[in-house]
Specification:
Elements lengths: L17 H12 L4 E3 L6 E5 L3 H11 L8 E3 L3 H5 L6 H10 L4 E6 L16 E5 L4 H10 L3 E2 L14 H7 L4 E2 L12 E4 L6 E4 L5 H8 L26 E2 L9 E5 L10 E3 L6 H15 L6 E4 L8 H14 L1
Helix pairs in contact: 1-5
The structure holds adenosine monophosphate and magnesium ion (MG).
C-alpha cells in the first residue's frame, strides 16, 4: 500500500492543484476512491485493476453488481492493453478520444481490469476522457481508473462538486467546477460486425455515424448494456414530461424562448440550444427537486442531436421516481 500521502491531506472538495491531484493519485494507488471532474459528469474512481477498489465503488454507490463500470484510460494505446480494438473501434477512438465516447470491447486474454468491473462479461467498457483534471489524475494514478458517475445508484448524476459532497459523504472530491458537457458518455458496443449504440450520450449519434456509418439498434433479445435496464436518475419529485400547461403545485423545467408560466422555473436553454440544455440538465433537476413543488413539469425537448440523450435521461427520470 502506497502511503507517501502529503503530511496534511488537502481538505475536500479540493481545488485541482498539482498537490491535490498527486494526493488523489496516491489514494487510488492505495486502493481508495476519489471523486473527480470529467467533461461528462463527476466520476467516482478507483484502481480498475484492484478487485477490492472496484468492489468499494459498487458498495459506495449501492450499485447492482450486474451493472458494469466504465474504465478510464489516457489514450487508445492504454485501451489496447485491456480491450481488443478492430479497425472500426480504432477509427472511433481516433476520431473522438479524448472525449465523451465509451467503447465496449472484447477483453484481451491478458486484460488486468477486474472482472467485477466487467460484471462478469467477456467485454470491457473503456473511454479516454478529455477533462484536464481527469487526464492528470489518470497519469498520476498510473493505472486505469474504473469510474461510474459519483452519485448513489439511481440518483441524479452529479455535474458539480457539491452534488457529490452532498450525497457521498466522506469521499475525497476534486472540484473542477461545472462538468462542461453535463451528460454521460455515449456508449457504443464495438464487439460485433456493426457498432451498436447502447446508450445515447454527450456525443451525438450523427457524429459517430459520420465515421462508421449507421449504428445498429440494440437487439431486444440480449440486452448488452445491463445498466440501461435499471431505473435511473430518480429525482426526489415526480417528473411530468411534454407538458403544455403547468399545474399550480408544479415547478417548471422549460426549454426555449417561450417558457410556460409557472412560479418556479429553470430554463434548460432560453435560446433553444441543445448543447446548453445538456450541460444544464442535471444541475437544474438537482435544484428543482429541492423546491417546495410536488412535481416537476418538463416542456418538450426536440429529439434531434443531443436531444436524443436528453430525452432518454428525462424519460428514465420520469420512470425512476
Ligand atoms: P454509468 O457508470 O452509470 O455511466 O453506466 C455505464 C454504462 O455503460 C451502463 O449503462 C453499463 O451498462 C454500460 N457498460 C459498462 N460496461 C459495459 C460492458 N462491458 N458491456 C456493456 N455495457 C457496459
Ligand atoms: Mg451513472
Amino acid at each position: 500500500m502506497a502511503s507517501r500521502a502529503s503530511p496534511t491531506p488537502p481538505s475536500s472538495p479540493a481545488a485541482p492543484t498539482p498537490e491535490s491531484i498527486a494526493y488523489a493519485g496516491e489514494l487510488i494507488g492505495a486502493g481508495r476512491l476519489v471523486a473527480f471532474p470529467t467533461e461528462t459528469v463527476y466520476g467516482l474512481g478507483g484502481n480498475a485493476t484492484d478487485d477490492h477498489a472496484v468492489a468499494a465503488i459498487f458498495a459506495a454507490k449501492a450499485r447492482p453488481t450486474i451493472n458494469p463500470l466504465i474504465v478510464h484510460v489516457a489514450d487508445a494505446d492504454q485501451a489496447a492493453a485491456h480491450g481488443m480494438l478492430d479497425e472500426r473501434s480504432r477509427a472511433l477512438a481516433h476520431a473522438f478520444w479524448p472525449g465523451p465516447l465509451t467503447l465496449v470491447l472484447p477483453r484481451r486474454p491478458d486484460c488486468t481490469v477486474s472482472r467485477l468491473a466487467s460484471a462478469g462479461h467477456a467485454t470491457v467498457a473503456i473511454r479516454a476522457p478529455a477533462h484536464p483534471v481527469a487526464r492528470a489524475l489518470i497519469a498520476a494514478a498510473g493505472v486505469p481508473i474504473a469510474a461510474p458517475s459519483a452519485n448513489p445508484s439511481g440518483r441524479l448524476s452529479p455535474t458539480l462538486a457539491h452534488h457529490v459532497a452532498d450525497e457521498l459523504v466522506g469521499v475525497f472530491v476534486i472540484d473542477g467546477g461545472p462538468a462542461t458537457l453535463g451528460l454521460e458518455s455515449t456508449v457504443v458496443d464495438a464487439t460485433g460486425p456493426v457498432p451498436m449504440l447502447l446508450r445515447a450520450g454527450a456525443l451525438d449519434r450523427a457524429a459517430i455515424e459520420a465515421v462508421v456509418g449507421p449504428l445498429a439498434a440494440p437487439d431486444n433479445g440480449a440486452p448488452r448494456s445491463p445498466g440501461m435496464l435499471l431505473g435511473h436518475y430518480a429525482p426526489r419529485r415526480p417528473l411530468r414530461l411534454g407538458v403544455k400547461k403547468v399545474r399550480a403545485d408544479e415547478a417548471l423545467l422549460a426549454f426555449g424562448p417561450t417558457p410556460l408560466a409557472a412560479t418556479t422555473v429553470r430554463n434548460l436553454s432560453p435560446r433553444g440550444d441543445l448543447i446548453e440544455a445538456a450541460a444544464n440538465l442535471f444541475a437544474m433537476l438537482h435544484e428543482l427537486e429541492r423546491c417546495s413543488c410536488t412535481a416537476i413539469a418538463v416542456m418538450p425537448v426536440p429529439d434531434h442531436g443531443l436531444g436524443e440523450a436528453i430525452n432518454d435521461r428525462l424519460r428514465r427520470a420520469a420512470r425512476g421516481h
